[in-house]
Amino acid sequence: MSAMTGIIETRNLSYSYGDGTLALRDVSICLEAGRKVALVGPNGAGKSTLMLMMNGILRPSSGEVLFAGQPLQYDAASLRKVRRAVGMVFQNSDDQLFAPTVYQDVAFGPTNLGYPAEKVKKYVGFALQYVGLSGYERRPPHHLSGGEKKRVAIAGILAMEPQVMILDEPTSNLDPASSEEIMEMLDELNQGGKTLIISTHDVDLAYRWADEVILMKDGDVIRRGSGPEVFMDGNLIRDARLKLPMVVDIYQELASRGIASEGKPPRNILELCDLLQPRGSVGDGSVGKIYICDADGSDEKQILAIMDKVGKGCFKGAMGTSAKLLAERCGIPLDFTYGVIDKCILKALIGKDALIMTSGGMVEHTMKRISDYGRESGAVIDAVRLQPL
Ligand code: ADP
């Protein structure tokens, strides 16, 4: 299947609950594989209902849902197959976690798929490591923090190796740091090739994170497009009982005062700063370096040696669970734990050096993001990949 194929598609999908509430009206959307999609809308817009249809938990009143081009079938065997491929993380972790231990909870999915015990063990181990909860196997899930419970729920889905992950309000009830960690984990999963679909009424989150925003109201999709495309229309957003993302709101005020030119709003603080202070006029014009260190390829001793050699005087950030855990083990104080690449670019632009610890595919992603930024903005930032010492 090519990257442009719809992995999940709905055609004229409508749904009424038993009491007659019409929750979805004739929704036709096609989601491409490998994207980060945010369903955005006020309470009652139909986001959860649409998600529950995407992996067959609810069956359409009319219309159909397709996975990888095939209409969903609702017999038990077909449903098992689609629920394995399209994993669903519920808004409230307590609705998802029920086993007495973390291990048993995460093992539930792969065990039900009929995997032999050894394979279950391997997949659970991998999933828990991915979400940063190795060592939590014997703990009872209901004693964990909100962020940890969310990680266990995600691990339970990951252990079944889904192609698509659907997360209903993944950050509701989490503190800001836990929310950022969860969203960053989702970024990492997306880098690894998974299609991600979240619902949220956090407009800042949707704007910043999603490749594609689907705006819903009263069971209808009223707009879809990139964050700037959907959130440029203040009236539409107000109509949907939402507000503008902060960066768009600031931009529109600046534009109305003639401080910023009218056009496409910036995606983030980095772009907003660039808009206000064009290239070349920042500080004395010297640009800092960004060092990138692969946490997977290094042990604690090597990391400490790197810190000793180049880390001094650098702003430091870590991206991804394994890099953050390594930084913690090494006692490295981190300046940035989310939005790390942009924050390091902002520092480089004022002549300061920065060091990013990350791992796996995120190393390449970081290098690319920095060079893309250089190409678009004209500020060439030296991204130096550090080899283990
Ligand atoms: P959202 O996730 O955007 O908040 P929902 O999909 O939960 O929206 O709800 C869409 C509509 O369906 C709302 O009018 C809501 O009241 C109704 N609804 C949701 N769940 C049920 C249910 N179990 N029974 C009856 N109506 C429901």
User: β content, as a range?
Assistant: 15-25%
Instruction: Pick out the low-confidence regions.
Output: none
- What composes the largest sheet? 6 strands, mixed
What order do the strands of the largest sheet run in, or round the barrel if closed? 6-7-8-3-9-10
Structural class: alpha/beta
CA distance, first residue to last residue = 41 Å
Mean pLDDT across the residues is 92
- Approximate shape: globular
Total domain modules: 3
Q: Which cofactors or ions or other ligands sit in this model? A: adenosine-5'-diphosphate
Radius of gyration equals: 22 Å
Q: Give the full name of the CATH homologous superfamily of the largest domain.
A: P-loop containing nucleotide triphosphate hydrolases
Short description:
The chain has helices at 47-54, 76-85, 93-96, 102-112, 117-130, 146-158, 176-191, 203-209, 227-231, 234-239, 246-256, 269-276, 300-311, 321-329, 340-349, 361-377; strands at residues 6-16, 22-32, 36-40, 62-67, 70-71, 86-89, 164-168, 195-200, 212-217, 220-225, 290-294, 315-318, 354-358, 383-386. The chain folds into 3 domains: 6-239, P-loop containing nucleotide triphosphate hydrolases (Rossmann fold, 3-Layer(aba) Sandwich), CATH 3.40.50; 246-276, no CATH class; 290-386, Cobalt-precorrin-4 Transmethylase, domain 1, CATH 3.40.1010.
